[in-house]
């Protein structure tokens, strides 16, 4: 017999129903809200969603287990489409150095930064990394995330990268759905110091084929920026990744726009991520493409910078904008998508509705999962979160709080159930 769950009493049920494909322009503000809506889930899939009168009278609703969301907002679970979740310990000395006025570059030059984390990750056992990433994935679930993209990129040698991608595979369904990205081209490791081209050659000839053959990643990513990889190196690497059958994503224009966005669009990348220093002349080109623009305001906030990505111009031009945490120990140590919503609203002038669309449905499209998750529609996975507020705008408005009471993935409660029942 089917396992049935009836979600009742929601003050606002945010369905985000609509045509397939990511939302753009004015459509990003349409949350498809059903007031006093009810949702029926059978075997992890949404089978009915609509006004209480209709759904509660269905035969299948009668013997269903009930989830009481009285007075709450029920919305799709967050799809956090850009994270460096597997990274070992936090970088607390870097944090203090930054507060004292040191730049990201100066911190790296002094032995901190990405290469410090690489050392920690290489030295860590897979068990240790599972413990770190597993605990953080549960924190994400407790904040309402149901799907997460996880990058490698802190191993930068064969053992380290394969270890991290295997930990990412282990992490799937513990409790989040995990999409894996190979970020071997994050920065050049010490063994290849001063020989970035040789490192890219080695990645292309050795590691990329191994990752692809073992199906350890669905996507490849490259950090194309000042202090990382040039446009030519990024193109070489992404072309090889595409030939190996991987989807493409890219860290582009975080500090400097080297032309990576145009290249990523030409190569058919799924997403271009960061864009704080995007050349504004590229906005129309990006908006006319299927590529998702993934914005990561947590990293701007945490680095104490003031230049956020041009979200307003991107949305107004019709780009498919997504939001993600960029969770990593250097530039964005948050696992909470609700904080990202708050930053998107106050710092990037996105409306709460646009931010929710960007953090759910458009994030799902950024991972190629738009047909499965990111909205609450019949036929999709029952991936949702019950927020303990009566109006969705309160989620970003009361910033710094965790409003998630219950998080559900494919019909199973993955966070918060106990506390919610007691309250
Ligand atoms: O997305 N920019 C490159 N990578 C990360 C930072 C990684 C780190 O500092 O450990 C980012 O911001
Ligand atoms: Fe990143």
Set down the secondary structure blueprint.
Blueprint: E1 4-14, E2 33-42, E3 45-51, H1 52-56, H2 59-62, E4 65-68, E5 73-76, E6 78-80, H3 92-99, H4 104-109, H5 113-123, H6 126-142, E7 145-151, H7 158-171, E8 177-185, H8 196-213, E9 219-224, H9 231-243, E10 247-252, H10 260-267, E11 271-274, H11 283-287, E12 292-295, H12 297-302, H13 311-317, E13 320-323, H14 337-348, H15 352-359, H16 361-366, E14 384-387, H17 394-397, E15 404-409, E16 412-415, H18 417-422
Parallel strand pairs: 1-4, 1-5, 6-7, 7-8, 8-9, 9-10, 10-11, 11-12, 12-13
Antiparallel strand pairs: 1-2, 2-3, 5-14, 14-15, 15-16
Helix pairs in contact: 6-7, 8-9, 9-10, 14-15
The structure holds N-(iminomethyl)-L-glutamic acid and fe (iii) ion.
The site of fe (iii) ion has 5 residues, from loops.
